[in-house]
Design brief:
five-stranded parallel sheet; 5 strands
């Protein structure tokens, strides 16, 4: 899929980081963007939005990224449950990474990601490639 035609959902609770990520996505030519400040809000809208890709933070309230992806993967609609997910987080602890790896995600970038790393990870995820976990 051409990145510029992708519908991307961003789940990030920190306003400054959300603005940074959305701005970088727009500079990449991605304009079909949706933003939520927690996983619960995003999960409620996922069926209506049908994104091609999800970028999510790990730690948010009332539902963080890990719980969000667990719920996403449990959906009966395979078109939704298998949406590629890239985690963006400042938390790269072994415990957190250990929880994320079994979720079948497309990647993990430490915040703030460089535009080059983010773009490469998005391109690979939209092509259906499982990428290296960290860059």
């Amino acid at each position: 899929m051409d990145m510029r035609r992708a519908r991307v959902l961003v789940i990030e609770d920190e306003k400054i980081m959300s603005t940074f990520i959305l701005g970088n996505l727009r500079r990449m030519g991605i304009l079909d963007l949706y933003s939520f400040d927690n996983g619960l809000s995003a999960l409620r809208e996922i069926g209506a939005l049908k994104p091609d890709l999800i970028l999510t933070d790990v730690h948010m309230q009332p539902m963080g990224g890990i719980e969000f992806v667990q719920n996403l993967r449990a959906l009966a609609d395979e078109g939704l449950s298998m949406i590629p997910v890239i985690f963006l987080s400042a938390d790269s602890s072994k415990a957190t990474v250990g929880e994320i790896m079994p979720l079948g995600v497309a990647g993990y970038l430490v915040k703030p990601p460089s535009m080059k790393a983010l773009e490469a990870k998005i391109e690979q995820a939209l092509k259906g490639y499982k990428t290296t976990f960290f860059d």
